[in-house]
Hints:
By secondary structure, the protein is mainly beta. The chain has 4 helices and 18 strands.
Amino acid sequence: PVARAARVVSVVLLTLLALLAAARPAAAQMALPGSAERLAGESFLDKHFSLAGYLRLRFDVFDNFDLDHGPTPTTGRPLFPVPPSDKGRGPLMSANMRLRLEPVIRLPWGVSLHARVDVLDNLVLGSTPDGLPASVWAPTAAASTRTRPPQEGDNSDIDSVRVKRAWGQIVLPFGILSAGRMGALISWGTGFFVNSGNCLDCDLGDEGDRIALTLPLFGHLVTVAFDFGAIGPTSRAIGLYPQAFNLDHRDDVRSFALVIARYDRPQVVERYVRAGRTVIQYGLLTSIRTQADDVPAYYLTGDLDREYGPDDRVRRDLFAFAADFWFGLRVGGLSVDIEAALLFSQIDNASLLPGTELLQRITARQFGAVARARYDWTRFKIALEVGMASGDSAPGFGVRSPLDQFSSQPGDLDGPQFRLPGDTTTDNFRFNPDYRIDLILWRRIIGAVSDAIYIRPSAEWQPLRGLYFGGAVITSLAMRSESTPSGESPLGVEVDLTARWEPHRAFEARLQYGVLFPLAGLDNRLLGLSAATAQTFHAILAFKL
């Protein structure tokens, strides 16, 4: 038996060595996700520090985003916030800023450290005067003569500095190991499912506490990853230990992912296309998420200093499976992307009250897809995009239901998509909120594409170097008419125009105008009101590192 075991081990080791030998030539030719591109002649033995990022200022005018719709029946609120003065009439005007810093430190032996730090993250300009809260120097807002740094719990809901990502990587002989809090390691597909939030106008981004290993095998990249989704209460409440730790693994939300892709960095693809080569990329992403138990009071109350015991636990038995397939083609001036995602999940007990079990299983069967084609004549581009997201029969779109709304009824714009005992499904697929197809309807009023199909032709013209003019027309219809405020499928036609000036890589100015012509789906049938036109101006000043 010992000899046989030794033979088995030898065979396994030889197989692994053969795979690694096959992988090394591929590693020399292919881009690995998340790896830093080295300059010509640069060695891993040289320490190197680089800094990327931007300073972004945005200015917005929101005119009639509530569409003169009146209150929704369940919450009594308008479709979009309105000015509290002048009976809710008049446009909303606002400005915000963000300083993003993304340092990379490259060390010997293929080690690199990465971070993303946002300073004054989406801070509304003028929102933290020294008169908030009132002081002897500024007893009123009008008496304020300077601004104060944002401080959570004092004058803001966030602090001045937010560290969003911090992770390390090491280049091994057979791949790359990444660990820490990181975003998506590659720009996956179109971005409607997995989105890194790297665009200049993005607000969120997909961050996760993750350990990932990427291997180049036979011309493809294979990544396996484990995510610490949520671990529940920690030892922080006990207060005896300098290093907090997880108190119970059974309430952990765990995610396992496997990615197989043929992928090249955008810079590499651009060089291939200029050389006249046809570039084909594709990939399959799969993920499983599980949770056995839950402690709802931990996140519903937000009380991190309380000790939680057995009486706070709820049996959850959650299981979810997601898969996403992407295909990309680049040949000459033509670019084609097709991506589709599906999600299946079940929750055996959806109760939020310890000691109470809901015996009806909650299930989800969701599907989303995007197909787009673009042709580039250097100074003129045209594109066509079609997208869809599955819907649910419950009233409302189910994108960002208010936490105090426990049910929905016909006429609501949003709300929970299941209601026991009769409705046990949540079948509406939600696009990533950083995937933007317009300026008003999906980005602002609803929040993300869900329960809909849309068609988006667009064009862009470059009359001078660094100057661009573009436009898009977005026609949207609901997949399930029961989800709209009126019970009709047509939602609206939106026209968005853009002027962009980018004299060099370090500065960009952008001005956008959008107008939404709402259709019957956004009418208020209960009050006999027809939805009115909405308009917006959106401007960006960006100083780039």
